[in-house]
Write a structure and sequence with these properties.
homodimer, Aspartate Aminotransferase, domain 1, 13 helices, 3-stranded antiparallel β-sheet, 2 domains
Chain lengths: 426, 426
Amino acid sequence: MSAYTTMGAEALDALIAQLEQEADAVRARGLKLDMARGKPSVEQTDLARPMLDMLTSTSSLVDEGVPADNYGFPDGLPSARRLAAELLGVDAANVVVSGSSSLNLMHDTVVNAYTHGIGGNVPWCVQGEVKFLCPCPGYDRHFAVTERYGITNVPIEMRADGPNMDEVERLVEGDPTVKGIWCVPKYANPTGITYSDEVVRRFAALKPAAPDFRIFWDNAYVVHDLGEQADELLNIFDALEQAGATDLVYEFASTAKVTFPSSGMAFVTASPSDIAELRAAFAIERVSPEKISQLAHVRFLRDVDGIRAHMAKHAKILRPRFNLVQRKLEEGLGDLGIATWTKPRGGYFVSFDGPEGSAKAIVALMADLGVTLTGAGATWPYGKDPKDTNIRIAPTFPSLADLDAALDVFVLVVKLVSARLARAQA
Amino acid sequence: MSAYTTMGAEALDALIAQLEQEADAVRARGLKLDMARGKPSVEQTDLARPMLDMLTSTSSLVDEGVPADNYGFPDGLPSARRLAAELLGVDAANVVVSGSSSLNLMHDTVVNAYTHGIGGNVPWCVQGEVKFLCPCPGYDRHFAVTERYGITNVPIEMRADGPNMDEVERLVEGDPTVKGIWCVPKYANPTGITYSDEVVRRFAALKPAAPDFRIFWDNAYVVHDLGEQADELLNIFDALEQAGATDLVYEFASTAKVTFPSSGMAFVTASPSDIAELRAAFAIERVSPEKISQLAHVRFLRDVDGIRAHMAKHAKILRPRFNLVQRKLEEGLGDLGIATWTKPRGGYFVSFDGPEGSAKAIVALMADLGVTLTGAGATWPYGKDPKDTNIRIAPTFPSLADLDAALDVFVLVVKLVSARLARAQA
């Protein structure tokens, strides 16, 4: 029971009238704020500026004998592959560093399965219905990739320790049309939770009904801690080895939110057999990768310690923003029992749940008052949040002052929409 | 009739014995030379080194109001789009600059047609047989893209002024399973010829039987002249406008062989409707492009005049290499009537034709003597050169001294293989 649902109709009417007056006052201010975008702030991208000094006209452009300034070496520069491997705790021999977008690598991996099949199996495009499991709330751009290829996106309940593994096991092991699952295992988008060791082990122990089932392990926030108290994610490839399993996981990551978004290094790793298959596909699809950018990256970041030191600077900028979200929501909504939200220790988002049937109305009223939020439903396949509760809060890009103002409006709007809902149900 | 086919058996035997002795002497030298790769030489890539000084930690990273250092602007930086548009003589509104590989853009364009169809038509993947026309000799990586998607690659005769347009018209206008044609209209790979104005006009005037037929116009060598006497290619989009046609051409290009191979800017242009369709596909497949690289490019190259000035430096390096090819072939083979070769005014290759049934033997013997050539047949779909005559000579990468040595071996090997063929037929 929330504070509003226990109020009488008259008290609710008075509350609504008062909140509407406050909303009118906000509207009159003509705000133009944005809490929608999961992108680094200007202060954060500025941290990568020294990378631009790494290569000059007189620099050596050779990396361990490999020229960065010409064609060739489709798997990427040796140093770049090693850095990626170190970051993910895998063998560099199984890493391909290519392009600046891990989402593009995921897309191309889905297309390879769709048009050519995985491991000698029939291409997905001629298998009839093909399903992907989508832990929800999740990342809309993942869902958009599989949706584009006519794959049925099946929502899976997301819990505090990861996806509901009973459901995942039941579907993956029982239904041969289930071919994949989208995972952001660390600081998940948008809940910010990290899969527990048990969840990772259960993933590694999956015995899929389909031989061409794969886990799409998007380790987007592998080093994106907000503070010293960081989550630890069990290495899925270690877990696979312990489980005696192979050919089950594609893991992706990038430096998009380490250096410059859209101009980072993207990479993929998989079992020797799976990565050989991707390599063969990439040999037709891609020429050699952007090795000049890779060289600048490895000279700037150097090694995993270098990356961690750099990410500590990001954290210093992000921490006050995430703290502000927690403080404002707690102060404004903490006592009311109308909403819940996550308290992540890393990543880019806070996941917020209002009363049932509130999310669309909240996002619409926010827009009306001059604050853009991620569209309600975006975190669910086909944009359909069944209970219409979830909103993704992206606090990284706005300035602290803008975020402060936007959160005040958000608290007001959540109250108003919740009060109206309670009144309608009273 | 060649000099060899008119020789008697005895004289041929003596000649073969002498050439074999020479070949033995070459083999004993243990050469390790490479004339296979269509890639710029070190001197050429060094020309782009000043681009690495364009961006430093203190540079403005904003291009006409657009931040280059964060997500967004999927069509590319305004300056980059304008530069690409200027280079191709098209409207920047119809240009997408994305990625570093135009081949990857071509691939993704084929995949879009294959999985989703063009202009509302049924996807190619469910149309049964789909054909692409492949002017031959041509570019193996083009053919590999369509081959990967099960598209039938149909060889089309290449002439001095472009593909045999009678054949192209007959097939495109008569056969609705013909969905595309691969064209390198300027300094074609590997013949180096440029399509005549009449050929371009006939392309623009095509009335395809298939509504989802498109010309894949890979203008890879748009500014890659070797000297002052440059070929002029009619602008296909101007020709389309004159013909009152639209939705017929995808045009691709990149700065791969202007700045750094694999680290350049790639771009695509098409009709407003076609580019809107690609943009929608790319919105799922690709995040935003490598705008840091784009910014460095536009600050370095500035405009088309800047590109032309830069390409004149490339030409100065390449001219002696291409001249050497002509001189060596003329001196060694000019009088014998056993071979023909092209004399391009730009691009990256010389196309060589020996006697029927000679190409595979020449490439194999060259390898045996320590000189790598592009595989015989590579310039034809499925690697099948029906007469086994064509060899692609790539003179850009080796040093002049290495090229000189490699050409001496080549002349010797062409003579020996031709003499053996003549002897077998005598």
